[in-house]
């Protein structure tokens, strides 16, 4: 019955699953059945049902607890979730090690969840600790790393994303054969590891691992749930078997599963690249170094089965069935194939290599050649055999070194199932083969499975290196080291680069650098590639807002709101669209909707705050920005918003403080520096203001406003010559900006060169007829009121007939422009 | 404006809004009427719908009072009147008064309308040609076309000049290049 339920779940037939699970639970009131039922509810999207169900009954098993905690977090009952996981406030808090012990393989996820709870409840230190621990347990998890970056910690991607210890590896890949771990460790990360010294040791280790897995499994009752948690994440098609079938026969599938789960793991976590996905078929000759080289070379080979692939050792983890058929001896398979298919290959290998034979590499080749035929069989077996092995593995994977070295023979004896036995043996043999190949390149009697392990290791290592790069890029972005981030991320292999996530990060980096044109280009690329992606789109909408591309923005917002009405990003885009059209009330409505959809989305609050500022409702704006900061203290836009409000209210020191806080978070924003400069000037700290503005210009020479403000500060300090110089430069950069002429006019006025001043004012008004006529007119008025009659006629001329004057002015302007230029030079 | 020519219709105030130089602030004020027929009151006057209107129901002068919470700068008043649909209900003489409260009102403008057929923009400026700052505005309909007793008014909008949101006491930027760097959003 359990098998049927899991199968239904795997086929997303939730109603069937729920019905059957309910019957099972009614029949057997065991914790396992309870867990199964709760899982069915949770997966079908009804977290509240799972929550109430699990709450109503005591849950002692770790998986029940984990699921209950997850439901609590989803329903925003953070305190409860925390209490379940770690004992809460009243009881003694469990330490992380306790948690690790209790939850075993799912400890990494548990810690990640706990970290999330801590961060949301403002206990960032504890949260980051949890995330670190979770990452150390399972470096394949990206979200703890991401969360760490976002809360401002700087986790080191190199340290995090590596498969260092046996323990780590095994715990994160419950289905992996431990041999893989040992092999991997040895060859890749720590050459100094003792383990790999001799093939013998490796074999022993393998045996140990196998044995431990055996023993652990046998000690397990057929409890599908535990492994399910891990395998569920790792391989979506895991269907845990119910109890019943022979333990050992299932165990035999361990080995095939290991390959699969490993690959399933990375597959679940990130897009697969050839760099780690390609498990090359290698000829047995090369040793360690070449092996490494081989698969790094393979990164250039894309996920095509490849005859073109460099031939490597005869490790053949073939990851896609289709590919296998083409493979022959030189198959390189990208990991993007279903991990499941790896195992069939492994199995194929093991099988075809014959039971108990110490396979030589030559033997392997027929194995490899055989796979296409074997594969269908394997895959079917795989499907049926499902995750019983995964289950077992997960349980076992508390990979501490098992104390005993069991006799391999005993293991093979215990495997009584027909097919299973050869598998086991073969797996051992593969282990041997692997280790030998790895350690020395000796062509020895190594079982095909070792190849598989090495391949898996290679795959994992490839994944790790990818994650490292992406981690570095993401970390740089979160510390607003944007140029660096762009650099790192551009160096990713091109098929990864052209994915939505990477491009969105790069787009965001350009956005933070205020290079809106570039950002827009990248984001439109994202839209082209992945038009179902909403996550980065709010930044895109703001970019379009800055560029004032209303058509593109309205298209974007329409598309997003049509696609996903429950995402805050879509409503933010819609709000931005209306804000650009200056329909602020509607924009406010949409931003409020975004907040309703997701109250934990900081950017919606920020945008709402900006709208309130535009409608002059400063109190509401203050409240909004404060909300944004409450949700995400590193949201520097909100700090900026607060600073702006205080500036408007002329509370300059408060404004400066807030801008400074924003700057601390994002030190490379020239716009921020510019604002700080202006505020400092308002506070009469003109020297500092000039310094700040100089810094801003150094960071981003393309920012015309910085120059403009520098000119205005110089003007205020009566350094007219330098101000003029600045403004002239600015005129070259942005010739159509009326403000520039306005300021030049003011400078000339101060310098007493009235006709130049007048000319510039007229140009300014020309460029901005509707805009700030008042100010410009005032400037002219003030100039002329105390003066004699002669200029007055000019004044009347200018002020009286704006429209008619414009045309004549443009002609006059042209001639005068030449005149001015000749004057100045 | 005592010419026999008809009052030309002004531009749609939405255009004004789109320039970003003004903002409609009627929502920040309390509106009241001297009298109205049931179903034809303030809501119909402020509903952005030119089909619905306010119909007064008392003696002249009919008053529309707009009271702000704080002293606000008002740049323009826009009134929609249409002789073709309202005929004798169309206002012909409108007086605009501002002040701090009901007892403190002072007339600043008087308009004569001759068969208007659209929006009428009334710039409100003080003696120095700047937009007025006031707590209260009263629009008084002193006379209607064809000496009608009651009046219809279809829509009224109040505009305030937009403050510069950028730093510094400068007028607005005109180019996108400047505007891009003006703020962080």
Automatic annotation (TrEMBL), chain A:
Residue spans crossing the bilayer: none
Compositionally biased tracts (Polar residues): 381-391
Chain spans, region Disordered: 350-423, 783-825
Keywords: Cell cycle, Cell division, Cytoplasm, Cytoskeleton, Nucleus, Phosphoprotein, Repeat, TPR repeat, Ubl conjugation pathway
UniProt biased composition (Basic residues): 396-414
SUPFAM superfamilies in the record: TPR-like (SSF48452)
Localization (cell): Cytoplasm, Cytoskeleton, Spindle; Nucleus
GO cellular component: anaphase-promoting complex; cytoplasm; spindle
Pathway recorded for this protein: Protein modification; protein ubiquitination
Family under the similarity heading: Belongs to the APC3/CDC27 family.
Subunit structure: Homodimer. The mammalian APC/C is composed at least of 14 distinct subunits ANAPC1, ANAPC2, CDC27/APC3, ANAPC4, ANAPC5, CDC16/APC6, ANAPC7, CDC23/APC8, ANAPC10, ANAPC11, CDC26/APC12, ANAPC13, ANAPC15 and ANAPC16 that assemble into a complex of at least 19 chains with a combined molecular mass of around 1.2 MDa; APC/C interacts with FZR1 and FBXO5. Interacts with RB. Interacts with FAM168B/MANI. Interacts with MCPH1.
General function of this protein: Component of the anaphase promoting complex/cyclosome (APC/C), a cell cycle-regulated E3 ubiquitin ligase that controls progression through mitosis and the G1 phase of the cell cycle. The APC/C complex acts by mediating ubiquitination and subsequent degradation of target proteins: it mainly mediates the formation of 'Lys-11'-linked polyubiquitin chains and, to a lower extent, the formation of 'Lys-48'- and 'Lys-63'-linked polyubiquitin chains. The APC/C complex catalyzes assembly of branched 'Lys-11'-/'Lys-48'-linked branched ubiquitin chains on target proteins.
Name this polypeptide is given: Cell division cycle protein 27 homolog
UniProtKB/TrEMBL annotation, chain B:
Source taxon at top rank: Eukaryota
Gene Ontology process terms (BP): anaphase-promoting complex-dependent catabolic process; cell division; protein K11-linked ubiquitination
Residue span, DOC domain: 1-185
InterPro entries, per the entry: APC10/Doc1 (IPR016901), APC_su10/DOC_dom (IPR004939), Galactose-bd-like_sf (IPR008979)
One CC-aspect GO term: anaphase-promoting complex
Pfam families per record: ANAPC10
Keyword entries, A-Z: Cell cycle, Cell division, Mitosis, Ubl conjugation pathway
Keyword Cell cycle: yes
CDD domains, sorted: APC10
UniProt key word Cell division: yes
Function: Component of the anaphase promoting complex/cyclosome (APC/C), a cell cycle-regulated E3 ubiquitin-protein ligase complex that controls progression through mitosis and the G1 phase of the cell cycle.
Protein family membership: Belongs to the APC10 family.
PANTHER family: ANAPHASE-PROMOTING COMPLEX 10, ANAPHASE-PROMOTING COMPLEX SUBUNIT 10
Oligomeric form and interacting partners: The mammalian APC/C is composed at least of 14 distinct subunits ANAPC1, ANAPC2, CDC27/APC3, ANAPC4, ANAPC5, CDC16/APC6, ANAPC7, CDC23/APC8, ANAPC10, ANAPC11, CDC26/APC12, ANAPC13, ANAPC15 and ANAPC16 that assemble into a complex of at least 19 chains with a combined molecular mass of around 1.2 MDa; APC/C interacts with FZR1 and FBXO5. The C-terminus of APC10 binds to CDC27/APC3. Interacts with PIWIL1; interaction only takes place when PIWIL1 binds piRNA. Interacts with FBXO43; the interaction is direct.
Listed name of the protein: Anaphase-promoting complex subunit 10
Organism: Cariama cristata (Red-legged seriema)
Classification of source organism: Eukaryota, Metazoa, Chordata, Craniata, Vertebrata
């Amino acid at each position: 019955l359990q098998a049927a339920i899991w199968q239904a779940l795997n086929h997303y037939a939730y109603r069937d699953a729920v019905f059957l699970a309910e019957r099972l639970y009614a029949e057997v009131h065991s914790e396992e059945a309870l867990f199964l039922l709760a899982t069915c509810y949770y997966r079908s999207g009804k977290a509240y049902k799972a929550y109430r169900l699990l709450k109503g009954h005591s849950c002692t098993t770790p998986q029940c607890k984990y699921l209950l905690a997850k439901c609590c977090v989803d329903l925003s009952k953070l305190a409860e979730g925390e209490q379940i996981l770690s004992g809460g406030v009243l009881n003694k808090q469990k330490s992380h090690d306790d948690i690790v012990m209790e939850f075993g393989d799912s400890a990494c996820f548990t810690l990640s969840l706990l970290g999330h709870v801590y961060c949301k409840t403002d206990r960032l230190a504890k949260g980051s600790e949890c995330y670190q621990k979770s990452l150390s347990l399972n470096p394949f998890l990206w979200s703890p790393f991401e969360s760490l970056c976002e809360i401002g910690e700087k986790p080191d991607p190199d340290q995090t994303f590596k498969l260092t210890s046996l323990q780590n590896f095994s715990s994160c890949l419950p289905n992996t054969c431990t041999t893989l771990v040992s092999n991997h460790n040895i060859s890749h990360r720590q050459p100094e590891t003792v383990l790999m010294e001799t093939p013998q040791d490796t074999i022993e280790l393998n045996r140990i691992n196998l044995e431990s897995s055996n023993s652990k499994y046998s000690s397990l009752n057929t409890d599908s749930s535990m492994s399910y948690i891990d395998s569920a994440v790792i391989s979506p098609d895991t269907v845990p078997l119910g109890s019943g079938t022979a333990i050992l026969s299932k165990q035999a599938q361990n080995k095939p599963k290991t390959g699969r789960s490993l690959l399933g793991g990375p597959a679940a976590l990130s897009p697969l690249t050839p760099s780690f996905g390609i498990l090359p078929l290698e000829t047995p000759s090369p040793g360690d170094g070449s092996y490494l080289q081989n698969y790094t070379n393979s990164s250039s080979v894309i996920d095509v089965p490849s005859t073109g692939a460099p031939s490597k050792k005869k490790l053949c983890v073939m990851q896609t069935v289709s590919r296998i058929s083409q493979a022959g001896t030189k198959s390189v398979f990208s990991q993007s194939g279903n991990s499941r298919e790896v195992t069939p290959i492994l199995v194929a290998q093991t099988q075809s290599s014959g039971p108990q034979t110490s396979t030589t590499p030559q033997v392997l080749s027929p194995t490899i050649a055989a796979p296409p035929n074997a594969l269908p069989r394997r895959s079917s077996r795989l499907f049926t055999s499902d995750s019983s092995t995964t289950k077992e593995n997960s349980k076992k994977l508390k990979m501490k070194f098992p104390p005993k070295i069991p006799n391999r023979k005993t293991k093979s004896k215990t495997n009584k199932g027909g097919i299973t036995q050869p598998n086991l043996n073969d797996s051992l043999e593969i282990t041997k083969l692997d280790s030998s190949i790895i350690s020395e390149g000796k062509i020895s009697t190594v079982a095909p499975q070792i190849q598989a392990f090495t391949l898996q290791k290679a795959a994992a290592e490839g994944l790790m290196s990818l994650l490292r790069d992406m981690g570095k890029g993401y970390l740089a972005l979160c510390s607003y080291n944007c140029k660096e981030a762009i650099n790192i991320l551009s160096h990713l292999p091109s098929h990864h680069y052209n994915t939505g996530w990477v491009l969105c990060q790069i787009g965001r980096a350009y956005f933070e650098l205020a290079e809106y044109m570039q950002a827009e280009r990248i984001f439109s690329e994202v839209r082209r590639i992945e038009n179902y992606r909403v996550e980065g789109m709010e930044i895109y909408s703001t970019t379009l807002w800055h560029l004032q591309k209303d058509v593109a923005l309205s298209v974007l917002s329409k598309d997003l709101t049509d696609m996903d009405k429950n995402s805050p990003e879509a409503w933010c885009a819609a709000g931005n669209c209306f804000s650009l059209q200056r329909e602020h009330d509607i924009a406010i409505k949409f931003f409020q909707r975004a907040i309703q959809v997701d109250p934990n989305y900081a950017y919606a609050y920020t945008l709402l705050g900006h709208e309130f500022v535009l409608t002059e409702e400063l109190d509401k704006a203050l409240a909004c920005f404060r909300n944004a900061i409450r949700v995400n203290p590193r949201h520097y836009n909100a700090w900026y918003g607060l600073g702006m409000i205080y500036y408007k209210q002329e509370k300059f020191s408060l404004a400066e403080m807030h801008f400074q806080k924003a700057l601390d978070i994002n030190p490379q924003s020239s716009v921020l520096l510019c604002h700080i400069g202006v505020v400092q000037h308002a506070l009469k700290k003109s020297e500092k203001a000039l310094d700040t503005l100089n810094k801003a210009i150094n960071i981003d020479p393309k920012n015309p406003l910085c120059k403009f403000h520098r000119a205005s500060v110089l003007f205020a300090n009566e350094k007219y010559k330098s101000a003029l110089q600045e403004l002239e430069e600015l005129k070259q950069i942005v010739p159509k900006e009326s403000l520039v002429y306005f300021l030049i006019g003011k400078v000339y006025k101060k310098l007493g060169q009235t006709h130049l001043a007048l000319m510039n004012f007229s140009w300014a008004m020309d460029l901005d007829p509707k805009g700030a006529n008042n100010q410009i007119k005032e400037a002219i008025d003030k100039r002329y009121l105390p003066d004699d009659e002669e200029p007055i006629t000019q004044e009347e001329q200018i002020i009286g007939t704006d429209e008619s004057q414009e045309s004549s002015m443009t002609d006059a302007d042209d001639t005068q422009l030449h005149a001015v230029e000749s004057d100045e030079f | 404006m005592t010419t026999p020519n008809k009052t030309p219709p002004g531009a749609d105030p939405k255009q004004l809004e789109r320039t970003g130089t003004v903002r409609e602030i009627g929502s920040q004020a309390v509106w009241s009427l001297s009298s109205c027929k049931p179903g034809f009151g303030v809501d119909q006057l402020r509903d952005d719908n030119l089909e619905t209107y306010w119909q007064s129901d008392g003696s002249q002068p009919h008053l529309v009072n707009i009271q702000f919470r704080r002293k606000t700068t008002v740049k323009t008043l826009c009134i929609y009147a249409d002789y073709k649909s309202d005929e004798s209900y169309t206002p012909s003489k409108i007086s605009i008064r501002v002040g701090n409260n009901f007892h403190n009102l002072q007339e600043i403008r008087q308009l004569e309308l001759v068969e208007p057929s659209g929006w009428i923009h009334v710039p409100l400026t003080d003696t120095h040609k700047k937009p007025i700052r006031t707590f209260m505005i009263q629009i008084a309909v002193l006379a209607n076309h064809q000496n009608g007793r009651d009046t219809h008014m279809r829509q009224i909008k109040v505009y305030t000049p937009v403050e510069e949101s950028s730093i510094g006491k400068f007028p607005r930027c005109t180019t996108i290049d400047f505007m891009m760097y003006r703020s962080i959003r």
